[in-house]
Amino acid sequence: MDRLNRGSKSLLAAVERLELQVPTAALPHQIEELLTIDHIAIPRSWSVRAAQRHPALVGQTRLSDHDAYVVEAVTPDR
Questions:
Q1: For every residue of 13-73, which 3-state class applies, written as one string?
Q2: Of 68, 75, 4, 71, which Cα lies nearest the Cα of 36?
Q3: Which of 13, 21, 61, 73 is 20 to 30 Å from 2 at the Cα level?
Q4: Side-chain-facing half-sphere of 60: CA atoms under 13 Å
Q5: pLDDT tens digits, the chain, 78 residues: what are they?
Q6: Residues 25, 35: contact at Cβ < 8 Å?
Q7: Residue 18: beta bridge partners?
Q8: How many Å separate Cα 63 from the centre of its chain?
Q9: pTM above 0.85?
């Protein structure tokens, strides 16, 4: 568990140092009651319009143990 905590702390420090935001941080995981471990980081100066999870399913068949995540954002020059 300590290793996970160090890794998480390192990632959070990098997000802060690089002035990023992670709009996927609050999105759900495919396992109910968990949050995703797959993330997209973008510059803090960008405005997030939407962040969405797209389950990796065809019908009831799971294609992957990871879902797809998409972020729609607007850059400051627009």
A1: HHHHHCCEECCCCCCECCCCCCECCCCCCEECCCEEEEEEEECCEECCEECCCCCEEEEEE
A2: 68
A3: 21
A4: 0
A5: 566 688 889 999 999 999 999 999 999 998 889 999 999 999 999 999 999 999 999 999 999 989 999 999 999 986
A6: yes
A7: none
A8: 19
A9: no
Cβ–Cβ contacts within 10 Å for residue 49, how many?
10
Per the structure, the count of domains in the chain is 1
**One-letter amino acid for residue 16 of the chain:** E
Listed residue (57, 8, 3, 51) closest to 27, CA to CA: 51
